[in-house]
Write a structure and sequence with these properties.
The protein has 344 residues and is α/β, with parallel strands linked by helices. The chain contains 12 helices and 17 strands. The longest helix is centred in the first third of the chain and has 16 residues. The two termini are 32 Å apart.
């Protein structure tokens, strides 16, 4: 493949989301989860189009809750974390090409059943969008990787080397497949994701994210008693000693804040790093506590050309993720602007 996965900050055609549907995951907070998904969708729709996929029979409810700024379609799905079960888009600017890579999906190592509809949904979506499908036999979730669009990918050993994903694949085979399908040339392996990230086995979008060429934001808890205090510093050391695909040292911006809130009798940690970058914006999960302001200020300073918007998402955290986990960007097809100008 000559195609490459663009960075998240590259211009989008829109955003994919999926409506909450796994009742045994959400339990008593299902209605709150639907409210939060709808609020996230409406917020993103301020910046770019949003396509919400609802399971058959739930489209009317999703449309009513999301409002008319969000497009809703019905397709069979098992769950609602489209960062992981949706397609990962790649583009080829030299040839005006765009495709969707359809990696296999097994519900984060078989943690939830069924998952067969989620394993098929990428193919259905790509057909509906009229985008070429590129199939991979490797199991991979989009939350397990972050890319700079210039050949660099960061992931965690905790997740990608976990035996519940690709037990017969070596680290080298996994890296080769990432390079072949996503067009990267350099893979930076961090040892750890979150210690309490039992759902995804340590996705990178809980601890590190590219926000610009050679620039990453890294979760760095301040409290030595935090379970990720030492683990995040081990990740930091790797990043400090790594070069990107262009041979540059990485600029590292720490974000210390995350906060815990009570929900359904549990203490839930809302991670600020799990933000999403729609066109011109940063949509950030917040806990609804005063310390939210500090995290939003860090992100506003790091990305001054974007509007930073916080959305309260304790139910998303209860379900095991954040705003990045429930979104998947559709990059604009190369040559779109030129073709529109020519047509005009």
């Amino acid at each position: 493949m000559t195609m490459r996965m663009p960075a998240e900050w590259a211009e989008h055609e829109g955003t994919l989301m999926a409506w909450p549907t796994r009742a045994d995951l959400w339990g008593a907070v299902l209605e709150s989860a639907k409210d939060e998904y709808a609020e996230v969708a409406r917020t993103i729709a301020r910046f770019e189009p949003v396509l919400m996929v609802a399971p058959p029979g739930a489209g009317a409810e999703a449309q009513a809750r999301c409002g008319d700024t969000v497009e809703v379609i019905e397709l069979p799905i098992d769950d609602s974390w489209f960062r992981d079960s949706g397609p990962i888009f790649v583009t080829d600017p030299d040839n005006d090409g765009r495709a969707g890579v359809d990696f296999r999906f097994n519900a984060w190592g078989g943690k939830h059943t069924p998952w067969d509809a989620d394993d098929r949904v990428s193919a259905l979506l790509l057909e509906r969008l009229g985008v070429e499908r590129v199939a991979s036999t490797m199991i991979l979730e989009g939350g397990a990787i972050t890319v700079d669009g210039e050949g660099t990918l960061i992931t965690t050993e905790q997740c990608l080397l976990h035996p519940n994903r690709n037990p017969d694949w070596t680290r080298e085979q996994i890296e080769d497949e990432l390079k072949a399908r996503l067009g990267v040339t350099t893979v930076i392996w961090l040892p750890y994701g979150g210690a309490e990230d039992f759902e995804t086995d340590g996705h990178v979008d809980g601890c590190c994210a590219f926000i610009a060429p050679a620039t990453v934001i890294v979760q760095l808890p301040e409290d030595p008693a935090h379970p990720d205090y030492e683990r995040c510093r081990a990740n930091l050391e790797i990043l400090q000693n790594s070069l990107d695909a262009q041979g540059r040292k990485l600029r590292i911006i720490p974000i210390a804040q995350s906060n815990r809130v009570g929900l359904d009798g549990q203490e839930i940690e809302v991670g600020y790093l799990n933000f999403y970058l729609p066109n011109g914006g940063v949509v950030v999960p917040i806990a609804g506590v005063p310390a939210d302001a500090g995290a939003l200020a860090v992100l506003a300073e790091a990305m001054p050309d974007r509007e930073v918007v916080g959305v309260r998402t304790p139910a998303l955290a209860y379900g095991g993720g954040g705003i990045h986990c429930i979104t998947q960007q559709i990059p604009k097809a190369p040559g779109t602007a030129a073709r529109k100008a020519t047509a005009a």
